[in-house]
Amino acid sequence: MLKELCATLLVLCNPILSGFDFDYAKDDRDHFVQGIAECTIKYNAFLPEMERAVIILSIAQAILESDWGESRFAREANNFYGIIQTDPTEPHIKSLNGNVLLKTYGNKCESVVDYIELLNSSSFFEKYRELRIKQVLVEEVNVFSLVDTLDAYAEDPKYKAKLKDIITSLLEDYSLLFNP
Fold it and tell me: Which of 30, 76, 80, 85 gets the most CB atoms within 10 Å of its CB?
């Protein structure tokens, strides 16, 4: 809880992240990818190397979870990662059936920060963190191996395969961004 509070305060009080947001129009995939990438890069700059998000994975999960930013949760709540709100007294948006509460964010980058903090702090993602540290130490990140550690992120049994397909497409469509 303390780490989440510190992350929130960092976003609100840091002049680089405070108010930083991005815009994209319907079907404007380029600006969506660029915006998620910029938010990820800006927050990564404040983290130790071992805790930094893998940019292409951050983008791929935002694409998959929010349908390229077109989902109701993305549009109405700036929630690009399907992050659930467990405290009903905190800002949230209800699923259409009312069974699930999802977090609401003041701007788009807050969603990215919360996603990174979730991967860095939740016990569900210990394997992810262990593998990321090993990969950073040998200076060879394999995003597809990291995806294999995300079993707990979604209930969809095809989630990891879908994520890998998106990553493959991103590597092809945005090769200059990921392989300069």
Answer: 80
Which of the four pLDDT bands, split at 50, 70 and 90, describes residue 6? Answer: very low
Q: How many C-beta atoms lie closer than 10 Å to residue 140's C-beta?
A: 8
What per-residue confidence (pLDDT) applies to 77?
97
Which DSSP symbol is given to 99?
Answer: S
Can you read off the two tokens belonging to residue 176? 């200059």
φ and ψ at residue 94, rounded to 5 degrees: -90, 145
Structure tokens at 35: 């915006």
Furthest-apart CA atoms within the chain: distance in Å: 46
Residue 94's beta-bridge partner residues? 101
Local confidence band at 19 (pLDDT 50, 70, 90 cut-offs): low
**Alpha helices in the chain, H assignment, sequence order:** 2-13, 29-44, 55-66, 72-77, 108-121, 126-137, 143-147, 159-173, 175-178
Of 99, 61, 97, nearest to 80 by C-alpha is 61
pLDDT band at 29 (very low <50, low <70, confident <90, very high): very high
Quick count: other Cβ atoms within 10 Å of Cβ 100?
14
